[in-house]
Fold these 4 entries.
Entry 1:
Amino acid sequence: MSVESLRNQVSQLQKEKARLGASLTCEQNNVRKKQAEINQITRSITRNTSPSMLQSKQRQIETKERQLSEYQKKAANLASKMASKDTEILRKLNELDKAEAQSQRKKDQDEKRRRDVMLRQSREVTREIERQSHLHSRMSASPIIIKFEDLPEKITVLFIASNPNDQTQLRLDEEIREIQKKIRESDYRESINLESIWATRPTDLLQAINEYKPTIVHFSGHGSNHDELVLQDDVGNSQIVSKETLVELFKVVSSNIQLIVFNTCFSENQANDVTDHISAAIGMGNSIGDEAARVFAAQLYSAIGFGKSVGEAFGQAKVALMLHNIPEENTPQLFVSSDLNEYDIVLVQPLEA
């Protein structure tokens, strides 16, 4: 039983005891009053009292003694009930003490876990920042030569959203809003064009990719734990796209695409397999929360918009989860084609280059 419930019970018992106490006081007053009346009649009997008057007074005394006996019984009954209430209150107070002690232990344990998580995240952030710094130093010492002239002047990010009616509803509009905001705040925002399609059906994929010719394809929505992407049918309910179908899709449309982001649950194997045909892909090794998906995606595109490589952008997006105290930094996974290095893949050409 909860602490609050026990407190309410103790309070109720104390109120009941107080009512019994008030009734007991009333009956005790009646006893004293009736005893005083009997005493007064008894004192009024003298040697000079006539037999008839004596008989009358004795009848009065007997009547009042019967009334006195009733008051005494009621008082005794009320006193017994109060004693029972005291016992019940004591028992409930003992239960309350144990419940409060247990609640405090749980609070202490939760606080310790929270501190441990924050300490772990702080250490992981520090390690990731040190790793990024080390990579930056190493890259500065042996700079990667990127031929910006081989990059397109402007890339397109195709945001593919699907939120079927029969699935948990996600805030996909918030995700693309955060992505747009981060791109607008980046150095090379003019080099990135963000397009989107919504309530996506499987048959929409080829049309959208052919129409927009994206450099990055971003899936936002649901995935299944059977390596499937969850899109929509014609009435808005779930329609499954298998991993094998996705791999075959990107095999035939891979000419412009450099990066695929599966910002959906259980998409690690999809991302791994499409790198047979695409330079890089990001997938989720487990389920991912709505907030984690937004924070990760927003920072990923922010870094890309600052001209960072895919490897650097991925690392920064993981650090962003840590900085937001979202313990899901190990869920995103990055895969690259076997002949490439994630830090060699730069997608945005600075306009001044």
Entry 2:
Amino acid sequence: MIDAASSLVDVAFHVCTHLANRGITAVLTGGSAATYYAPDAYQSKDIDFVLEFALTTKAVATAMADAGFSRSGSVYSCPDTILTVDLIEGPIAVGSEIISDYVRVEDKRGVLLTISATDSVRDRLAAFIHWNDRNSLDQAVAVARNNKIDLVVVEAWCRAEGGAQKFEAFKRLLGGQGGTRTLTP
């Protein structure tokens, strides 16, 4: 159950659980995943899920109605929260790389599927590399500082995306943590 005091992560668990109960695989991505991994550093205003498989609008709308959400335009909203939900048709990707592995978290709230912390960093860096979005750079740094990430994977991906200089800016902001293969909080 969600209400006006529910956090983004609480609402994400609620929605993901309802979708999973209907056989719909939805993976938390974008700024929403950054909020999951670094809630004290960044709070997204909407919740982004990528649907792993192409589904009919009716199947998704029915599952979202079960969760208390109705479609308005391109997003789903619920009177119990100011947060909106955007369901994007897959595949799940960061930049040009398709992501096939994601994290499954289960607790008393239900189930949440999300991209990994390393993929969240890469996702936020994609916005920095391709659109020069400094806020996304800050989010990438916050996720990296608060979670174990594979810096070698991030660097290789940045180079493949044409973002070698942007990776160096990211690494500088990490400070002394930037020289290690794996970062831990």
Entry 3:
Amino acid sequence: MARWTDTDIPDQTGRIAVVTGATSGIGLEAAKALAAHGAEVVLAVRDIAKGERTADAIRKAHKAARLSVQKLDVASLASVRAFAEVADEALPRIDLLLNNAGLGLIPQRQVTADGFELQLGTNHLGHFALTGLLIPTLLRAPKPRVVAIASIAHNRGRMDFDDLQMVHGYAGRKSYNRSKLANLLFALELARRAAAENSPIASIAAHPGLSVTGFIGASGMAGPIVQAGLLISQILGQSAQAGAWPGLYAATMPDVKNGDYWGPHGIAELRGYPRLAVVAAHAQRQADWARLWAMSEELTGVSYPSLGRAAAAAVG
């Protein structure tokens, strides 16, 4: 396996990247790397003050970094719509949309401001709506990419379309696994639709393996469970910087193709350099891709416009 790291990212000068959840973990590392290689990076974050501190820290490390901070809470459709409106007006285009923000393993069922189960609403539905609303802005770029950060947890996820939001029998881990499966199904269906419409958009998924971030500590699980999870991550996993590599590879490298799924190369895809990852058999059912898409449009009220080149020319 080639020893690819974020230092091997090609020059990103001229590209505009939007990174959701860019103040910590994988998103922070991705934003730092993209800015260091010349991209103009929009930090799309819930906490503006924290976002500004993050931008200042990146600028201190990289004097030429071009960064802006915009409010975005993917757990709120109102916030998603407001961000999309601002982006469409303020940005000439979006070359890269990195759908990274997320949470997980929430022990008790909670809901978003829109009444969605919190993990599905944040990890999937918010990004589904965001991507759909940003399609016109993406189509102003010559070769736009949408990268979804999924997870090896998709292997254990199962879609129950009769109880998609776990009103009955909620379990934090099961909900998280389902939400990450949804991320992958969405990315694959977007890729299928883009190909069918001869779209310039490339939809790619990636996962970070098992990475040491603040994710487990922010879950709300009991202290001993958190400590055990952190210990396992430290022994078997890798740093947040290394965890960002598959997503960065998917976002920047010329050999990446529409519909790809990238992850670490090591045993069980827990750690290592980027390579094409394994899509679980139950995630390859196109009927599930289409059904989740239709339900997501209905739940969010966001219907996707045409992805084709004619649409790109119309908004260009």
Entry 4:
Amino acid sequence: MADLWKDLNLFAEEVVESQAIEILREQARLLNKKTNGMVKATFSKINYKTSFVETFVEAVGTAMPDYLKSEKAEILEDDLKDKEDLNEMYTSVRYKFEIFNDTYRFRIFTLNYKKIFPIQIEIDGGIRKELNIQSASEDVNSDEELTELVSKVFSSRKLSTIISKMMSQQS
């Protein structure tokens, strides 16, 4: 039998897991401190509401016999039960970074997060224009790139103006 693994290059690339979640949660906490609680930030998963049709289909689906359902629960063999599924490294989860006070809120960016790079960030259109960022979604290939990009976003004139407006409203 032929060796189908012959071109496997095991040491070609080191897999680096992103620390984006921790970095951005810390930045959200820092804004609260910098503004003495007048403007707060949140970095959290985006939750979507399901429509009536989706809810109905899901409810009907749960009453259907297993052989009629399109998704079936996989039963893992004993030797795989305690193993972490590495498919999750490639699963994207959408997060939002927003600032808010008692009256206003503003979404600065969304992040399509995966455990490994690249990850994508979608910055507010006005800030993107100010920073001369052409594409709607930027690929980020390291924690350093993320830190540099977010620092530019946080230093934008639009964001400074919005934070000033929120703080003056609180006075």
